[in-house]
Each structure stands twice: as C-alpha cells, then as structure tokens.
Automatic annotation (TrEMBL):
Start and end residues of each FAD-binding domain: 6-321
Keywords on record: NAD, Oxidoreductase
Entry protein name: FAD-binding domain-containing protein
Record flagged with keyword Oxidoreductase: yes
Organism name: Sphaerisporangium flaviroseum
Record carries keyword Lipid biosynthesis: no
Length: 413
C-alpha cells in the first residue's frame, strides 16, 4: 500500500468537487481529487446553471470552464402547457435577472467537469481517475483509502471534502443521515438533430401525465427531461424505452406537436430516477470531513438549482479553508447556517413547483389555470419562480410562507 499526504482530499470529481480543487490548489494548498470514473462520460446529471450560479462560478475562478466545455446561454423561457392557450404563450426574458450576468447556461456536465479537473491539475492538484472503494476515517487527521489498478492507496490529510453526489458515499460513512421524500420520477437524455428548435429557448410544460423540459445546448443538441407519476416508473425502462421517451414529447401543446423533439436522434444514455429531496437530519460534517454539493442535501431536481448550490457550497467551504488554520467543525458554522437557510427555501420552492407542474388530471389542470390567472393579476404571486434565477436570499421572504402556499393552491377562486 502506498501512503501519501495532502492538505485536502476531495472525494468526487464532478462540478462541486472539481471546482473546490481548482480554488484550493490555486490558493496554495496540496489537493488530491479522486474520481471514480475512468474517463469523464455522460451520466445524465444536472446541466443547467442559474445566473446566481454563474456568479458563484466566477467567484471560484472556474467560469471559463463552462464556456470552453460548451456552455450555451439560454435567453428565453417558454411555457407550453395544456392549461395555456396558444394566445397566452409568451417568452420570458431570462437575461434580465442579475445585471451583468446574462441568461442561464446549458452545457454538457461531463465536459465541464473534465475541464475543471484539468484546471485543478494545472494549479497543482493531483487527479486520480478510476478511484474505487473510497473509504474515509474522520478525525483530526482523517485518512482516505482507495483502490486503483495499481493497488490500494492511503492518503493522510488535514481535511476531506465529500462531493460524491446523491449517492452519499462519504456521508453514509461518517454517519450523516438524510430525511428523504419523493414526489415523482424523472428521466433525462441527450439528443442531437434538433435543428428545428429555437436555439436559445428553453421550455417546460405539462400535458396528460408528463411534465417536460427542453434545454438546448447549441448546434442542434439538447438535454431532454420528463417528470412523471411514480406509478409510471417503469414506462421508459427496458427495450424500446428510448423510443417511448422521445414519443412522450408528441404533445398537442407543443408547436407542430413536438416534431422537432420526437424526430431527434439519441446522443447519450437515457437515465430514469426517483426525484428525491434529501434534507440532512444533522450537520453535514464531522471532525475532518465536510460534505458539499448534493452529498450535503438537495432539493427536488425539478427546481434546477442543484449545480448553483454545489458551486455556492464549494466557494463557501473553500473560503473558510483558505482563510486560516482553524479547520475545526466550529469554523464551518457560517457554512452550515447559510446552507440550512438556503436548502429550506429551495425545498419549499421545489414542493410548490412539483405540486403545480408535476401533478396530473383535470383538477391539476384547473389548478394551473387558476394560478396563471392569479399570477397575471398579481405579479407578487410569481415570487417562487425567482428561485430558478436569483439566489435564495434575494427572493422575498413572503414567498416561503404557508399563507402564500395556501393562497396559491386553494381550490376555489
């Protein structure tokens, strides 16, 4: 067994872990970044970065990785929905929410992660690909072991960052438990050949028993998502699943019944998952180990804020590590307080989006119609939609009250 030493070991080479490696290595710390994949490949992860997440990327010094990795600015948002008539469909300008930032970015996750890992190496970090069976022993001097084709390895560190995502590999090892809830299922796939789709327009809507999302990535490529009831969790699995997934976009509410989507060509794997919200039941850290990104807890993916949160986590934790020599659990209290506040708001917002757009049947359609009328009359009713675009602390507080939710969803006008 080989034994190494490092200031920080980061388990997980996705965007949260790789961005932290970039920042910490550039700050002069010795960093080892462990990634379980042999090469970065499309695993169907989050690929949409809100304007407030773009600002976090800039602060971390990794923004250029998004552009070089294929980042594509989304300038308009269209809602096509069975509850919306053709003359009610309008484009929302997505470039106006944070001055100087522009619209959100859509991009291939694996390409951006690979570039961030390369930037970390250029800054002095050591990258280990194909790192399997990562185990962490917490403490004042935490120990990390992992395996590669060359055998078993051990690293003794001052700090370990757990960034393995929703699998919570490191969190489980250090005893962090999650309170999980699931409202629906989701699926995603990359496609090419969508040249008939407007290149800078993302779309969402609900019809029948599916809620769809389309995120262009430029040059005819797009990431497609579907959200659907748990009773349909097997619908897009097995032989013919890809064909059924694409056919689900043949919707009356879409222009030309979704022809631009249904005739697209698969350009990556189809993945289907339970859309789970995970809230940590205690602090997502112990002595010597801090969790960041989805591993520290996450809201339902329907909200689309996972990557923005991951970058906020990365920046906040890196700032603490670079600020001084106190790396005790108490030093991370500001991170824990801000994250708890943020996750509470995002989880509340995701529950509203899920109930509004990922519930089906005549009553749900009428609910969406009524909410649209309310939003048209009272702009303040659109407050929760800001969570997709601006940081949670910048969203008015009344949008997170039970009174607001009752007002939005009451069944009678």
């Amino acid at each position: 067994m080989t034994v190494d030493y490092a200031d920080v070991v980061i388990a997980g080479g996705g965007i949260s872990g790789a961005s932290a490696a970039c920042r910490l290595a550039a700050g002069g710390l010795s960093v080892v970044l462990l990634e379980k994949q042999e090469t970065y490949e499309d695993l169907v992860r989050g690929e949409w970065l809100a304007p407030w997440g773009i600002r976090e990327a800039q602060r971390l010094g990794v923004y250029d990785c998004f552009g070089a990795g294929g980042g594509w600015e989304i300038r308009e948002w269209m809602t096509w929905d069975e509850a919306v008539s053709d003359d009610e469909v309008e484009a929302v300008d997505m470039t106006r929410f944070i001055p100087g930032i522009g619209g959100p970015l859509s991009f291939p996750h694996h390409a951006v992660s690979e570039l961030m890992a390369a930037q970390a190496v250029d800054s002095g970090a050591r990258l280990v690909m194909n790192a399997a069976r990562i185990t962490v022993t917490p403490g004042r001097e935490p120990v990390v072991t992992y395996q590669t084709a060359g055998g078993e390895h051990e690293i003794r560190a001052r700090m370990v960052l757990g960034a393995t995502g929703r699998g919570n590999t490191i969190g489980r090892q250090i005893g962090v438990t999650m309170r999980n809830s699931m409202h629906h299922w989701g699926g995603g796939m990359m496609v090419a050949g969508m040249d008939g789709w407007p290149a800078d327009v993302q779309a969402m809507g609900t019809e029948g028993d599916v809620m769809f999302m389309v995120f262009p990535q430029g040059y005819g490529r797009a990431r497609l998502y579907l959200n659907f009831p748990t009773v349909n969790k097997h619908r897009y699995r097995g032989p013919g699943g890809v064909e059924r997934f694409l056919a689900a976009f043949e919707l009356d509410c879409l222009p030309d019944r979704g022809k631009a989507v249904t005739e697209a060509v698969p350009a990556g794997p189809l993945s289907v998952w339970p859309s789970v919200s995970s809230v940590p039941e205690g602090p997502p850290l112990v002595e010597g180990v801090v969790l960041i990104g989805d591993e520290a807890g996450n809201a339902d993916t329907v909200l689309g804020t996972g990557l923005s949160c991951a970058l906020r986590d990365s920046r906040t934790v890196c700032d603490i590590l670079l600020d001084g020599d106190d790396w005790s659990p108490a030093a991370f209290d500001p991170y824990l307080r801000e994250r708890e506040f943020r996750l509470e708001r995002l989880d509340f917002g995701a529950s509203i989006i899920s109930r509004l757009h990922v519930e089906f049947g005549p009553a749900a359609v009428e609910r969406r119609r009524r909410v649209r009328r309310l939003m048209a009359k009272n702009f303040a009713a659109q407050v929760t939609g800001l969570l997709n675009m601006v940081a949670p602390e910048d969203v008015p507080e009344f949008g997170f009250s039970e009174f607001f939710a009752e007002r939005l969803f009451r069944e009678t006008a």
